[in-house]
């Protein structure tokens, strides 16, 4: 059975984060299939795209219209019960004779069996220890009459015909499949039994966990895309085994125990790098996946207008457009138009959907961005937007919350800031107040034109 690897982007995922996870998982599985064809005995990995938050509307549109399922939502990468449990454990009916249970345990070299009722649902557990204790109990007659060995033999023979349900242990620890392994270990060690079971919603046993299973704690295998900082990563990343990082941001603080594949290029989109990896490994990109990748390149580079755009982004965008059979600007505008207007998008989503935390001295700041074709419509909701920004600032104790409302057509951004505006005003030599915001012509990139300048100023 293949070992699962989750491919995950940053918190508050944007289209680049979602699309890159989907595409890199496809690439990883294609490469694993190539390995398996060359050597069927090789153990392989199974890549699965996941996400840490809601899917942006443009990602939802491009994935659904091209037949891709949404990445599974996860909240952490801590090891789970499902990472160590033995799935689909062998079972025996509660009406079966003890002889049958013993035979299965011996033939399968098992210590315990799941016992089921007449409907195939979980009933309890029976183990070699329980059967041994039953046999040992038969020798109790010898204490009364040491010469009465025939009575012992009769009792032992009778036990072979006894029903499994008669000695089944029903007070067994039940674990949740997605529960944290570290918590399950504590419960299992305190349990009088060496085993625990995992049940589904229909009370059927889908897994069994023994103390031997948890002796060596496993680490979930993870690939990070579009980030490499722990503050933006999934909870539990410090416990996971990071296999690779594919990113286009500054190098952060994710550390690994051994060397890994770390691709970090100064380009406008992680999807650009993922596309280059397809080319490097000579893996064909399906038309549908080309649209997914192209949408990510265009959203992260604002249809190749952002100052973060490089020749590599343009080259890969043209390559993907040729596969997808679309015109770049026309397709890019269609992608952006699937981002809801201010009247349709909730204020909470507008502020939170594409927001990233940054370390500012001893404190944290939040810089959010929302791209639109209708700035005026968004600004009609300024009061509610600022209220949400203040709520975030107070609840998470940010130094400030800065929202860039980027007008794609006008190629600039309206700055709204709540909190310590002095930092933003000083860095950009502006006078951003609590009303109306400040128009910043030519400012399209949060990473290169905003975050980099603020971080550079505060470090100095």
Describe the structure.
With 460 residues, this protein is α/β, with parallel strands linked by helices. It has helices spanning 15-38, 57-65, 98-107, 128-137, 141-144, 149-161, 181-190, 270-280, 287-300, 311-324, 328-337, 347-352, 375-379, 382-396, 421-428, 446-459; strands at residues 3-8, 45-51, 72-73, 86-87, 91-93, 112-116, 122-127, 173-175, 195-199, 205-210, 221-225, 241-247, 261-264, 355-360, 363-372, 400-407, 412-419, 438-441. The strands form 4 sheets. A 6-stranded parallel sheet has the order 3-2-1-11-12-13. Strands 14-15-16-17-18 form a 5-stranded mixed sheet. Strands 4-10-9-8 form a 4-stranded mixed sheet, covered by helices on one side. The protein is elongated. The chain starts with a strand and ends with a helix.
């Amino acid at each position: 059975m293949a070992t699962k690897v989750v491919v995950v982007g940053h918190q508050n995922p944007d289209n680049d984060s979602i699309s890159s996870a989907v595409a890199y998982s496809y690439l990883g599985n294609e490469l694993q299939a190539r390995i398996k064809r060359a050597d069927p005995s090789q153990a392989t990995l199974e890549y699965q795209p996941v996400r840490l938050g809601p899917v942006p509307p443009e990602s939802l549109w491009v994935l659904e219209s091209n037949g891709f399922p949404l990445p599974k939502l996860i909240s952490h990468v801590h090891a789970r019960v499902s990472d160590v449990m033995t799935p689909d454990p062998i079972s025996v009916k509660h009406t079966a004779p003890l002889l049958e249970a013993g035979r299965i345990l011996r033939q399968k070299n098992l210590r315990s069996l799941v016992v089921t009722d007449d409907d195939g649902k979980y009933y309890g557990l029976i183990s070699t220890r329980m059967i041994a204790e039953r046999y040992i109990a038969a020798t109790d007659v010898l204490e009364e009459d040491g010469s009465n060995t025939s009575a012992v033999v009769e009792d032992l023979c009778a036990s072979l015909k006894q029903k499994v349900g008669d000695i089944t242990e029903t007070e067994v620890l039940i674990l949740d499949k997605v529960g944290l392994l570290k918590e399950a270990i504590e419960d299992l060690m305190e349990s009088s039994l060496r085993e625990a079971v995992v049940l589904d919603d229909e009370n059927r046993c889908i897994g069994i966990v023994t103390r031997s299973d948890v002796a060596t704690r496993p680490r979930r295998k993870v690939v990070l895309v579009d980030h490499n900082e722990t503050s933006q990563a999934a909870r539990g990343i410090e416990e996971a085994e990071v296999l690779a990082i594919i990113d286009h941001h500054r190098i952060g603080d994710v550390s690994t125990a051994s060397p890994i594949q770390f691709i970090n290029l100064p380009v406008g989109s992680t999807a650009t790098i993922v596309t280059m990896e397809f080319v490097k490994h000579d893996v064909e990109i399906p038309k549908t996946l080309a649209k997914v990748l192209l949408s990510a390149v265009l959203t992260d580079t604002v249809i190749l207008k952002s100052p973060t755009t490089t020749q590599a982004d343009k080259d890969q965008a043209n390559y993907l457009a040729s596969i997808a059979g679309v015109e770049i600007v026309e397709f890019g505008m269609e992608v952006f138009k699937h981002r809801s207007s201010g009247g349709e998008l909730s204020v909470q989503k507008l502020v939170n959907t594409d927001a990233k935390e940054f370390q500012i001295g001893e404190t944290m700041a939040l810089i959010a961005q929302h791209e639109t074709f209708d700035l005026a419509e968004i600004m009609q909701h300024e009061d509610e937007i600022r209220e949400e920004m203040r709520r975030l600032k107070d609840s998470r104790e940010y130094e400030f919350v800065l929202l860039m409302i980027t007008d794609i057509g006008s190629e600039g951004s309206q700055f709204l800031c709540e909190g310590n505006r002095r930092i933003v005003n000083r860095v950009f030599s502006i006078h951003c107040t609590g009303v109306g915001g400040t128009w910043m012509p030519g400012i399209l990139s949060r990473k290169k034109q905003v975050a980099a300048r603020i971080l550079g100023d505060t470090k100095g």
